[in-house]
Amino acid sequence: MSYELTSGGDLDVVRGIGMLRTQRESWQAAFVQRLVVTDVVAVFGAVVAAQIIRFGGPAAPPLAWPLPYEVGYSVVSLALAAGWLALLHGYGTRTPQVIGTGTEEFRRLVSATLGLFGVLAILALLLRVEVARGYLAIALPAGLCALLVGRAAWRLRLRRWRAQGRCHTAVLVVGSSEAAHAMATAFTGDPGSGYRVVGVCVPTGAVRPQFDASDGPAVLGDDRSVLDAVRRSRADSVAVAATDHLGPAELRRMAWALDPLGVDLIVAPGVVDIAGVRLTNRLVAGMPMLHIDPPRYGRAKSSRKAVFDFCFAAIVLVLVAPVLAAIAVAVKLTSAGPVFYLSERIGRDGVPFRMIKFRSMLVDADAAVDALIERHGGNPVFFKVKDDPRVTPVGRFLRKYSLDELPQFFNVLRGDMSVVGPRPQVQREVDSYDGETRRRLLVKPGVTGLWQVSGRSDLSPEDSVRLDLSYVENWSMFLDLALIGRTIGVVTRGDGAY
């Protein structure tokens, strides 16, 4: 296999890609300029605020150092801001590879700020300079917070632009039929990442049922005709998944061929649903490798998670007590039956418990479920139907905004559930589990979880299981906090609930 540029057609590739590079680099350059302005405002705002708060304004005492020259804190503030901005540039906080997605951008912001601390400490030691601690205690934390908030605000703006079809990176996916489909699905399912799949290349003769649908990405060739597919699709990135035909030598030659075209090469390691905190990059004999830490089942059952669950649930119940009372009155006055609905669910280690919710259906709803499943041809294990006739008018509103689930925080106080965890399962679901799916039962079910913020009732049973298993294996306290924050947005919009 060869990826060398040897023909006139390859020059057409360069011209076509050059046009697309101009478009991509245009929006990236404009976005970086906005980040520069935001960073300058954040840094200078922080040092000026620190000087005003600590010294009352520009008329501050001179810097304490052994040299015979007086240096005022206005000069110190200017030098500090210039050094800070230089470190932000030096740490690559605005490179195209990190802006707009992932946590690397924020990690580099923090590293640059900590690096500034280190530089100041070394200079103070060598030059015997005494910088006012109160000044630094205000400037550095305030500047870091302002930088993080500014980047987060621009990231939200960028996601809105991408939702409108702007600021995308056109990507060509290369790999086996199954691997290419999984990667294309991942890119499509995360529009905020900015990747738009413009085609796929799969091995010749491979069975490709995944790409037969008219609304899926087009197959532009096999994994030996990548350059031609790049020319036809005008892709500016090539993402390579698992394939038997592309070994280390072929990937290196592909990188050489793509470099003059300005096309990025992305290589997927082939692992799925593994959180970044479990991955460690290592270089062994010149070959990059990923070390994967064991699943975090034990951490998801830790005492600190239990303490957090209890405290969070108690605070929520106190804050929403008036809302609970209003909902209870509305349910009681608008339909016959009890206010609460108690349903048996299966908890950690397969132990059943009674989950409490506000009643959103008619009192005889359970008796009609078999007939409803047969009428709609649904899955008896995981049954959900839109416009369910058993749901009351008030219940429909409660379900849309997940208000019927608020009493589940009482289950959290009792220790039956967690604030964040897998979806609570009924016995008929658990009876259908295989050995892999039963891993959902290793931790307590949650009031919210990955399933809640990733589509809720619109999810297929397979996706629901996959997300729950991913949570169980990759748990962290930061993940819980992130999912709680995302849940607020999801339930406010009423996405995927019925």
From TrEMBL:
Q: Where in the cell is it found?
A: Membrane
Asked if Ribonucleoprotein is a keyword of the record, the answer is no
Q: Which residues form the Bacterial sugar transferase domain?
A: 305-492
The answer, when asked if Membrane is one of the entry's keywords, is: yes
Tell me which InterPro entries the record gives.
Bact_transf (IPR003362), EPS_sugar_tfrase (IPR017475)
Main localisation, per the record?
A: membrane
How does the protein associate with the membrane?
A: Multi-pass membrane protein
Could you tell me the keywords of this UniProt record? Answer: Membrane, Transferase, Transmembrane, Transmembrane helix
Q: Which GO terms describe its cellular component?
A: membrane
What is an example of a Pfam family matching this protein?
Bac_transf
Residue ranges spanning the membrane: these are 31-51, 71-88, 109-129, 135-154, 306-331
| One annotated GO molecular function | phosphotransferase activity, for other substituted phosphate groups
Q: Which family does it belong to?
A: Belongs to the bacterial sugar transferase family.
Protein name per UniProt: UDP-phosphate galactose phosphotransferase
